[in-house]
Prior knowledge:
The protein has 102 residues and is an alpha+beta fold. It has helices spanning 2-16, 62-67, 88-98, and strands spanning 24-27, 31-39, 46-51, 56-61, 72-73.
Amino acid sequence: MNQLNGKASMDKTQKTQKIEQYTTVYHVELGKGQVVSVTYRRNNNLVMCYFPNGKCHEWITENELRGGVGDIALTLQTPQASNADVPDSLQSALESLFSPTK
Length: 102
């Protein structure tokens, strides 16, 4: 139950955290970065982030950033491999191809 409460409070923090210059963000491949600028819009602010490891800038909308939809998020993310994108027929073909023969 503690994990559920911790996750709920983390989600609440992400939704209420003010996103401004120097807010820490995390990229799946580039690691830790920070918000450089925020272009304020009526419905969805545009956020520019800088990642020193890749020496590059990335753009993301505030809704995507808060939702963790893109490669950039407010919390550290670990890349997860998923089999959900592989169709069943392809998955079974690959399994039969690499399974040991009897």
